[in-house]
Amino acid sequence: MADPYIKSQVRRIGEILKKSFKLLTDSNPLLLSSATAFFATFALSPVLIILAHLFNLFFDEKIILPKLFDKLSTAFGEKATGDIKRIVDNFLSLETTSYGKSRRSPHTRPTTT
Hints:
The chain has helices spanning 4-27, 29-56, 61-76, 78-94. By secondary structure, it is mainly alpha-helical.
């Protein structure tokens, strides 16, 4: 004869699993993960631009951005990081200072990888 405590624990675990499965199917995790990936793709470049400006207050941009892109390449791979780098470089090349001059020389093209 089985112990009543063990029976109640098995029943409780079964109820927890049933509720967990119901919550999982109700929340549609595939849709949520694809939406997160989609918005992260388009939000990553602006976040990097903001970080570049923020870190530029304390450090040289030529030091910070390559380090950020090195970290990104380990997470996303070389091709995706190259695309993100191109977006950030193109945006930064369009910026102007308060004097109306471009931050970067118009003759220097952003590097492509």
